[in-house]
Design brief:
Strand content: 35-45%
Structural class: alpha+beta
Distance between the termini: 41 Å
Radius of gyration: 19 Å
Order of helices and strands: EEEEEEEHEEEHH
Low-confidence stretches: none
Shape: elongated
Number of strands: 10
Length: 181
């Protein structure tokens, strides 16, 4: 048994959507008591720290309905069924920014909201960028604006909350710590 493991007694699928599903699990706690857990299942995603030859980070601004506002983020997108994360990363980089890359390095994977969701983001760094002649189209419901900023400018965007998501804040921290490595 894993430390603090909660054993699932019963699982009830509540919703099955295009991107996520929701289930409610009845669990047995380590102390023998029972509880309910609401869990969102997500196929996983990638995020890309794209760095220009000038050392700037490529960001996109887009509207996020869940927040009812636009925010500035690193390029990212969800995994398609059976798709390898590196393939998704290259596709999303091209679709959202119009850039391809000669160097794509996997950094790490992490959970976004472990209290209620199983989404895992696979983080990559893209270097030696090049502009795509005929770039892939954005999804029909996706509208983005491209920005290329220094780490210092990105840090200011965190301070004034234009950057408001964890994956992008993590990317800026990574840039600050490792940009000269």
């Amino acid at each position: 048994m894993k430390k603090f493991e909660e054993k699932t007694i019963h699982s009830n699928q509540i919703f099955e959507g295009k991107v996520i599903s929701l289930k409610v699990d009845d669990v047995l706690l380590p102390n023998g008591k029972k509880a309910k857990r609401e869990i969102i299942n997500h196929p996983g995603a990638v995020a890309i720290i794209a760095i220009t030859d000038e050392g700037k980070i490529v960001l996109v601004e887009q509207y996020r309905k869940a927040l009812e506002r636009s925010i500035i983020e690193i390029p990212a997108g969800k995994l398609e069924p059976g798709e390898e994360p590196a393939v998704t990363a290259r596709r999303e980089l091209e679709e959202e920014t119009g850039y391809g890359c000669h160097e794509l390095t996997y950094l790490q994977s992490y959970s976004t909201s472990p209290g209620f969701a199983d989404e895992i983001i696979h983080l990559f760094v893209a270097k030696n960028l090049f502009k795509i002649e005929e770039k892939a189209e954005l999804d029909e419901d996706e509208f983005v604006e491209l920005l290329e900023v220094t780490v210092e400018e990105a840090e200011e965007m965190v301070k004034d909350q234009r950057i408001y998501d964890a994956k992008t804040a993590f990317a800026i921290l990574w840039m600050r710590l490792f940009q000269n490595s």
